[in-house]
Amino acid sequence: MTQDIRVQNAELCEVKAIHENIVTEVTQRMPNQTHVQSLSALFKVFGDGTRLSILWALSESEMCVCDICALLNLKQSAVSHQLNKLKMSRIVKHRRDGKVMFYSLTDDHVRKLLETGMEHISE
Q: Given 3.40.50.1580, 1.10.10.10, 1.20.1630.10, 3.40.50.2020, which CATH number is that of 49-123?
């Protein structure tokens, strides 16, 4: 119990003062709530292991559903469901080649997010 109290006290200001210059500067650089909500939704998409595995695979190569299923040992319905979520979030795009639909990352930002996250957990 004592340890919990120390942790809580460490997070409290000992002096009740607002540093207005810091608050003003940071306020000017804060994103608006619409952007915060959109970013939150993006990170929620990244919060699923299956979706992350699919994204990692697509960061390496454009792939069709069957390729992804074989790579990740998943059923087609599961992969299709996750790809649909990723498409709705504009993280993945698709193109048709005859009867085959190929999927890829929408842009390099997703790859950078994956790489940055991997770097962070590897430190």
A: 1.10.10.10
